[in-house]
What does this fold into?
Amino acid sequence: MSKTPVSILQEMMVKKQLVPNYELIHDGGGTHMNTFTYQVTCDGHRASGTGRSKKDAKHEAAHAMLKVIAAYNSYPQLPAAREEPVRTPIAPVVPEPQRIPPSVPFLNAVGILQELCIENNLQDPEYVQISDIGPPHAKIFTIECRVAAFKEVGISRTKKQAKQDAAKKMVDKINDLVADMKDIDLSDVEEDESMKEETRCNAIAKSRYLTLSRLPTTKKLNLGFKVSEYHLKIKNSFSSEAREQMVDKLKSLIPPDHSEISEEFVEYLSSEFKDFLSKIDLDISSMSLESIALDSYITVMRINTVLDIVQVGLGKTKEEAEYYTLLKLINSMMFLLE
It folds into this structure.
């Protein structure tokens, strides 16, 4: 890496036990195209340099001084100094906000988006201000709306309108996605053997999204602790003796023989498990799904823990599917309490 004129001059003067003296003689002028001028004095010589920044001006002054010293002492021509990039300030690009005609009625897109997220079981929208550009009397605000992995940006002269603009774009995006899912013909997908398995499964999942997203749920309160610490919160809510009794109760619900699964036993198991959950302020919800295979049934169940515990069971009968789903949930709760 080549040395700068300032460092070369410094080393040269140190050998003579001297120190270059730099003096700022022009401080920029106060315009948007500032220039600075430094004057350097050393070894009886004087030189000056001008640049767009103080650093550039200082380097130019040192370079001029090296030329003066070289000419005075008849030194060979100095090597070219390393050029510093010119630091020209770049004016920020001010985005142009979309102007809404006065004839267009106001639409509360923020409220509509909130309701849309609740209906489709999506996380609450998050709004983040990412920039505010322009003079104080005419700022342009940019706000980003985030829902799951989706992002949309709104730009306006007020924060409120920028938020509305971002929410409106997000509403349009989600509505378009949901509309696309409704258009999928499940029967065609299931019968198309040429379609790759992964693509086929993705298409089936999309077609069932609207049904799955409406699985009954209970609104959760702000618990005041991190989700990753929920299992500790559950454990600390009970004494060791109480937890042992709860685990023993759950173990007693699991039959030693799974060969005969009657409708009466599944009803009994479901009732006992719901009663167990109600004692620790938890609820369970369930629904049946249509299976691709004609001789099988699918059941989905969810416990409103934080995060939700969701299990899926597959069986040759509806009772069998519910039974295996309940067993998975019972084991999950035992794991949470042990």
Notes: DSSP finds eleven helices and nine strands in the chain. Residues 24 and 44 are 18 Å apart (CA to CA). The longest strand covers residues 21-28. The radius of gyration is 36 Å.
